[in-house]
Amino acid sequence: MYRLFFLILILLNTSEIFSQENKLFILQEDSLQKYFEKIKWSESDTEKLLYNDSIKRVLVHFFNNQESYNYTFTNLKNLGITYSTDNLFKIFNWNIPMADFTNVCFGGIQYYYEKEYFYEFFNDNFKNISTPEKEILTSANWYGALYYKAIACKAGGAKYYILMGWRGKNEFTSQKVLDVIKLSKKGVKFGASVFKINKERKKRVVFEFSSRVSMMLRYDENYKMIVYDHLSPSKPIYKDQFQYYGPDFSYDGLKYEKGKWIEYTEIDLRSPDKKTKREKNKN
């Protein structure tokens, strides 16, 4: 009888704690939404960044509580949240359009590594990263993007994740980004030499195209491949002028083989069984 009484008491206390935490998360969500609204109507970059600092302070308090990992935002429109396919991390993403038509990306991650809970924030430094496809980066030196997919992978027993994202580079061009993120107790690292395109090993893949068009980049379950629009200039004279690039109605892809993502070209997305062209030189 006494054991039953104490069990009921413990359950009531646990329920009360959960209820209090949930109320706190709801208040933090409301605060975030208010700051995002203020950014929307701000007239200067300085004002936008001040409100953004307030957003980050709220998220620090939110991340400090491990139980926040299981909380689902229901009303936030300006904050994207992407879960990994194995549910071991979730990335929070948002961006701020600036007066010079660039976009500054912001992000943070909550993750579990060897059953321990960690979190950290990302600092967008894309303007100072001149060769993004060759760099191993950290959260403090991040090639920012707004992620919408995170796929768990393994190579040689080590786990990593493929990230798919978008960023508005400037007034004329946008980008789609294929990146890699690795988790550890010391923090996260971005980039790994797992992509092979046009005979070249890349640590991440950046596609650039006209801001007037959109580009498809996704994982296709039928092909078991990452597939994407092939980009071409509207006229040959515009080669390497990416404000004139867009999809040309053909498709390429990356297939996982022996620890690497190898490029295939001329994929027929209407027929998964149809053969595709592999890059000519694999080695």
Describe the 3D structure.
The model is unreliable at 4-18 and 279-283 (pLDDT under 50). α1 (2-40) packs antiparallel against α2. The strands form 3 sheets. Strands 10, 11, 13, 14, 15, 16 and 17 form a 7-stranded mixed sheet that branches. The chain is α+β, with helices and mostly antiparallel strands and 283 residues long. It has helices at residues 2-40, 45-64, and strands at 80-83, 89-97, 103-113, 116-123, 137-138, 146-155, 158-168, 173-184, 187-190, 195-197, 200-202, 205-210, 217-220, 225-233, 245-257, 260-265, 277-278. The chain is globular and about 55 Å long. Helix content is 21%, strand content 41%. The chain has 2 domains: 1-74; 79-278, no CATH class. The longest helix has 39 residues, at 2-40. It is built from 2 helices and 17 strands.
